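Dear support,

I submitted the protein below through the web form. The confirmation email said the job was done, but the results page showed an empty box. After a refresh the structure appeared. I'm attaching both so you can tell me whether what I see now is the final result or a partial one.
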Amino acid sequence: MEVLIENIPFLLQGAYYTLLITLVSMFFGSLIGIIVAIARLKGNKVIQAVARGYVSIIRGTPTLVQIIIIYYGLVDFGIQLDPLPAAFIALSVNNGAYLSESIRGALQSIPKGQMEAAYATGMTPWQAMRRIILPQAIRIAIPPVGNTFIGMLKETSLVSVISVTELLRSAQLLIAQYYSYMPFYLGIAVIYWIMSTVFSFLLNKLEARMSIYE
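What the results page shows now:
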């Protein structure tokens, strides 16, 4: 275990990139998810069909394949992305599909009468959505979105295949140097667990705070 302790700073640098990829992907994935969810609920038939197709394709194909297509496949069209931006794009697009379903379900759970009541007070559709519907929907969506968030934290390990030096890739580099497996794999398992536990705690706090909209 001494070799693990000596290389903790290097592993923590990998953990930094894991967190960075997770947060960036969750931010843009959330934006995509909200847009797709609203498109499926409020869009015309063409927009709804496109949104459904996007969700079906992303949910029906492995995340690893999506990462490889973004990084290697786009080269055939003259688009060469660096590993980190490719990771951001692939995981954001992947995340957006899953989040859109959670958000759509949360929006559908809000009684339609609340939107009608908002219209009766003179609110525009956007004001009603922003002030009345979305705060309640966010509260309902926090548990499934939180699970997606924690899942995304662990799925960042997949971008090691395109040489992004996140946590798993950092461990692999150390293993290649020291020819020792167990200390580094156990080490990153503990780091993943700590990060997941912290995120779960923060999400529980957020859910409690959002309960005022219940």
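Response: this is the final, complete result; the empty box was a page-load delay. The radius of gyration is 20 Å.
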